[in-house]
Amino acid sequence: MKDEILSYREMCNKIHLNTIQRGMNFHIKKGISVILMSVRPGAPYDDEIDMVKNLLIYEGHDVPKSKQNPEPKKIDQPIWTDNGTLTENGKFVKAVEDYKKGLISPEKILVFEKLNSGIWSEKGLFSLINYETRISNSRKVIKFILEPVDEHIEIPKGKDVEEHNRLIPTGVKIAVWKRDKGTCVLCDSTKNLHYDHDLPFSKGGSSITEKNVRILCAKCNLKKHDKIE
Ligand SMILES: [Zn+2]
């Protein structure tokens, strides 16, 4: 229900998923995308609500922080991943382009807003009608323009293909261990390590390769989830 106050758990239940691991989720369920936004001070991205035009302006996301990219806020927000697939930014950009070409109707996005730690509000259903690229602090950021739609959407129960539930093949584990030198990719810790799938929810098709697996320590993994919750 629009404007309902929800805990993180209740928010996940709304879309019948155990977790929502990231802010941008293109086609998290068949035909439905979900984004998590925040206009709180200190939020990781500059999302805005344009009260005059009644639009939501949602900032695209940075490259994930890694040893190769220690300062994501200094790098253009990416459309493509290193292995040539679209990032979440890219998938939403493509949806706008396809809509403008008249190939599809605007992408429907269910929006949740973080009000405080562990407190969320359902902002309702929006249409993704446009995007722009802006220069901010000498790098490119993407701004998605969303228009509220007066419509209710039923989110299907049951499992979609959720790749993060898939097992990581041994060969991939060995390759990742070598590449990450047996340390956490974020803080170099050698304790409490595990393999982290850095996978979008509904990538549909591409398999687990060393490019979407990394080593994280328990502390950094917790921080990653805190960012969302
Ligand atoms: Zn760590």
Q: Which key features would you list for this structure?
A:
two-stranded antiparallel ribbon; binds zinc ion; 229 residues; 8-stranded mixed sheet; alpha+beta; His-Me finger endonuclease fold; PUA domain-like
Q: Identify the CATH architecture of the largest domain.
A: Roll
Q: Compounds present?
A: zinc ion
**CATH domain fold name of the largest domain:** PUA domain-like
Biggest sheet descriptor: 8 strands, mixed
Shape: globular
Description:
With 229 residues, this protein is of the alpha+beta class. The protein has 2 domains: 5-148, SRA-YDG (PUA domain-like), CATH 2.30.280.10; 163-228, 3-Layer(aba) Sandwich (His-Me finger endonuclease fold). It is 18% helix and 31% strand. Strand 6 (107-116) and strand 7 (119-136) form a beta hairpin. The protein is globular. The protein starts with a strand and ends with a helix. The model is unreliable at 160-165 and 200-206 (pLDDT under 50). Zinc ion binds at residues 184, 186-187, 189, 216-217, 219-220. Residues 184, 186-187, 189, 216-217, 219-220 line the site of zinc ion (ZN).
